[in-house]
Amino acid sequence: MDMTAAVLRGVGDLSLRRVPRPEPGPGEVLLKVEANTICGTDLRIISGAKTAGVRPGVIMGHEFAGRVAAVGDGVEGVDVGVQATCSIVLSCGRCARCLAGREHLCESLRLFGYEIDGGMAEYLLVPREAMERGNLVLAPRELEPTTLALAEPVSCCLNGARQFRVRPGDSVAVLGTGPIGLLHVALAKLAGATRIVAVGRPGRLDPAVELGATHALSAQGEDLTREVLRLTGGGADVAVVAVGDPALADQALQIAAIGGRVNYFAGFPKGSTALMEPNVIHYRELQVTGGSNARRADVRRAVELLSSGALDVASLVTHRFPLAEIDAAIAAVRQRAGLKVAVVPS
Ligand SMILES: [Zn+2]
Ligand SMILES: [Zn+2]
């Protein structure tokens, strides 16, 4: 039997094709995809700006939710019809990084939607290795698939947030109000931050306030520094860079409080460098961290937060397209038509 899938045939060429529908072998699970949200990284993969770990011919999509359509021999505890998503990081479990608890930075990691076929298709196979590593995460039946698909970006934000640990009463500044910045705003609120300043494009300040920002502004440069220092009473306990603009590397330091935690969460353009004032780190005793991908535990936590409603970010998904209109869906992301764009196969 065949299925429709969005296949990356080469740089700039993501197109719908009829491909064989995978059959779950022993230990494998087949998901019928119900939603796949698109992220900025997908655009970079399609344009060729991101090539690391990307296999030509791959079915794209790394933020997906589906229902178990079939299970292979030997799979236990996974019933047909149950809703699920997957940690997209397939790690080896044996390398030094995996053993040190950094499976998401595994030396031989493979990602769904990059190398392993992903969610922009009618069906997705969870390979045996991924099942054995416990990558499949089950979710309540009633959770909206477009919301469950957000477990991937949420899990990445949780991994980043582990580095800077927002404490109750903290002030947090989030630079960037794309979907990732907005998720950081919502997570900062959940963690008990009392002042949350979101900085971004004028059109995306309202969503930031809806998700918990106490202040939202579109200032830049020194104006931005002055405003954040004023609103936080001398500097943010946590400053998160949630958009890959190298100029924000220094900006985030300038707005941080004494002893503040600065996190470069966003990926920056390959090879980019930034000018910064290291004395700010020195005199203010800042902690500067990064964050990339997520652990399986982060995905499980993300599914819990989304299922319980503790993290209510369903409103982030503003656009839905059938798989047949994948080009329109990609164009909507490129034009920043809304916040999160979902492909809904059927
Ligand atoms: Zn992504
Ligand atoms: Zn490893």
Explain what the structure shows.
- The protein has 12 helices and 17 strands.
- The protein is α/β, with parallel strands linked by helices.
- Strands 3, 4, 5, 8, 9, 16 and 17 form a 7-stranded mixed β-sheet that branches. The protein has a 6-stranded parallel β-sheet with strand order 12-11-10-13-14-15, sandwiched between helices.
- Strand 11 (195-199), helix 7 and strand 12 (215-217) form a beta-alpha-beta unit.
- Helix 5 (151-164) packs across helix 6 and helix 5 (151-164) packs across helix 11 (296-308).
- It is globular.
- The two termini are 17 Å apart.
- The structure holds zinc ion (2 copies).
- One zinc ion binds next to loops.
Give the CA-CA distance, first to last residue: 17 Å
Q: The CATH topology of the largest domain, please? A: Quinone Oxidoreductase, Chain A, domain 1
Q: Which small-molecule species are bound to the chains here?
A: zinc ion
Round the Cα radius of gyration to an integer and report it.
Answer: 20 Å
Mean pLDDT: 96
Number of domains: 2
**So how many helices?**
12
- Per DSSP E runs of 2 or more residues, the count of β-strands stands at 17
Q: Which architecture name of the largest domain does CATH use?
A: Alpha-Beta Complex
What's the CATH C level of the largest domain? Alpha Beta
Note the main sheet.
Answer: 7 strands, mixed
Structural class: alpha/beta
Assign an overall shape.
globular
H/E element string? EEEHEEEHEEHEHHEHEHEHEHEHEHEHE
